[in-house]
Specification:
globular, 5% helix, 8 strands, three-stranded antiparallel sheet, OB fold (Dihydrolipoamide Acetyltransferase, E2P), 2 domains, binds zinc ion, mainly beta, single chain, five-stranded mixed β-barrel
Length: 110
């Protein structure tokens, strides 16, 4: 399985169990539910902010894409709010950690 390779190329992919269909994130070779084999599929491109924190002048957010998939990354611009919709603009691997950048999809003054 080459999920890491795809992520490094900036293509957000996730794992999917061939047996029970569970979406698997972070990537694993086998499903943690039924131990079925996991294959790669395109990941969702949007999600909602569930938590965020400001560090120096940057915002870091936790994005919930589905019940199983949460990712953490940096917001490129704007001010985050809980439940706000964002899309992935960049992904990759930096120092062995998955890394994402998001941009806001809704107006910031809602
Ligand atoms: Zn499974």
């Amino acid at each position: 399985m080459n999920i890491d390779k795809e992520l490094q190329k900036g293509h957000f992919v996730i794992g999917k169990c061939t047996k029970c269909g569970k979406k698997v994130w972070p990537p694993m070779d086998f499903c943690d539910e039924c131990f079925g084999e996991v294959i790669m599929e395109d990941g969702p491109q949007t999600g909602r902010i569930t938590e965020f924190a400001k560090k120096e002048n940057e915002y870091f957010c936790i994005i919930e894409m589905t019940e199983e998939i949460r990712i953490m990354g940096k917001l490129l611009s704007g001010t985050p709010k809980n439940n706000q919709l964002v899309k992935i603009t960049q992904c990759g691997i930096v120092e062995n950690n998955y890394f994402f950048e998001f941009s806001l999809l809704e107006s910031a003054n809602m």
